[in-house]
Design goal:
Length: about 375
């Protein structure tokens, strides 16, 4: 049996929406992008949404709109996808890492203040695997020290912490729509904010620095081609209409895995904080005990047709980050210990009970074989 790690959930309605755009005269900068932005803004409860071609682009534009530059420091987590750090390295700002909470795997809020210096400009939080953080606490710290707050919710569309939607309690938040996300635009991302200046700057910079109301070949600032096409936006509109159905289905799949794995010796199922009243699952990541050879377990799964990945490799141990920052093994022990133990299992809307059972059976076999 073959079980992929992920697979997008595309229905005929999505296909029809994309074909409709293909048959129109407008493939970019048209009504679909505007409709998608309005619907995203309404869904998360923000005034403005600016759609772009990736979550990375969304984060980069937020960094530029906030004026983060060479010499500034940004506090963030080392346990994340690399884009959470690249977005301000593009502007030559310096990452200052804070180790993670061993349960939620999010940045440990209690360790943020000790990392703040006179060069600190912002705190960039990450809602790891879809689990949002206590952003009220983060904002209290930011307010105390006059810092900006960026919420990387690229993995958490639809999640809520104490009723607060992920990506909304910050100066600006970002979501992403890669095919393995809750909803997809194939490639794409979006910035959400209540700040009109941030919104206008991001709209301008995503399209070569054009003024909002200016002529086509006028440019008032350095910008990029970070636009999202009408095709991508049309796909996103239909996917967003299905968001609650998708979140519900992913919760059901996570619960099926939890039920089958909760009593397996050597396996730790994902922990969700009780304050998270709504979890929008991005991936399903287990952790195995230190006496189990994680890499051999993964290879066994792969050899048996099961897609899996080690989510995440610590950012501070990526080769170019080590060169830039001087970080080494041992600097963030919780992150490193967690990263050595994680396995992302197949997780997608249309996975069957038979496939889940197969994954679990093969995982049990692997653990039995490769326990030291």
């Amino acid at each position: 049996m073959k079980v992929p790690l992920s697979r997008p959930d595309i229905t005929q309605k999505e296909i029809d929406a994309v074909v409709e755009v293909l048959r129109s005269d407008i493939l970019s900068i048209g009504p679909k992008i505007e409709e998608f932005e309005r619907k995203i803004a309404d869904y998360v409860g923000k005034k403005y949404a600016i759609a772009v071609n990736s979550g990375t682009s969304a984060l980069h534009l937020i960094v530029r709109a906030l004026g983060i530059k060479d010499g500034d420091e940004v506090i963030t987590t080392p346990f994340t996808f690399i884009a959470s750090v690249n977005c301000f390295l593009f502007e030559r700002a310096k990452p200052v890492f804070v180790d993670i909470d061993p349960d939620t795997l999010n940045m440990d809020i209690n360790k943020i203040e000790e990392k703040i210096t006179e060069k600190t400009k912002a705190i960039l939080t990450v809602d790891v695997f879809g689990q949002p953080m206590d952003m009220e606490k983060v904002n209290e710290i930011a307010k105390k020290y006059g810092l900006k707050v960026i919420e990387d919710s690229c993995e958490a569309l639809g999640s809520e912490y104490k009723g607060i939607k992920a990506g909304t309690l910050c100066d600006a938040g970002a979501f992403a729509f890669y095919p393995n996300k809750q909803i997809t635009t194939a490639e794409g991302g979006v910035i959400v904010t209540d700040d009109e200046e941030i919104a206008q700057l991001c709209r301008s910079m995503r399209s070569q620095g054009r003024p909002i109301t200016g002529l086509w070949l006028e440019h008032e600032r350095l910008g990029f081609n970070y636009r999202l096409s009408e095709l991508h936006a049309a796909l996103g509109i239909v996917q967003l209409e299905r968001i609650e159905e998708i979140i519900k289905r992913r919760l059901e799949i996570a619960e099926k895995y939890n039920e089958r794995l909760k009593d397996v010796k050597g396996v730790k199922i994902p922990y969700i904080a009780p304050e998270v009243n709504k979890m929008s699952w991005f991936v399903y990541v287990i952790r195995v005990d230190e006496n189990i050879d994680r890499d051999k377990v993964m290879q066994y799964l792969i050899d048996n047709g099961i897609g899996c990945r080690p989510y995440f490799t610590p950012v501070h141990l990526q080769s170019y980050i080590k060169e830039l920052t001087g970080h080494k093994e041992g600097d963030f022990p919780i992150t490193e210990k967690v990263a050595r133990s994680t396995i992302a299992l197949p997780f997608f809307n249309k996975i069957t009970d038979e496939q889940i059972d197969y994954v679990v059976d093969k995982l049990k076999e692997a653990i039995k074989i490769y326990s030291r």
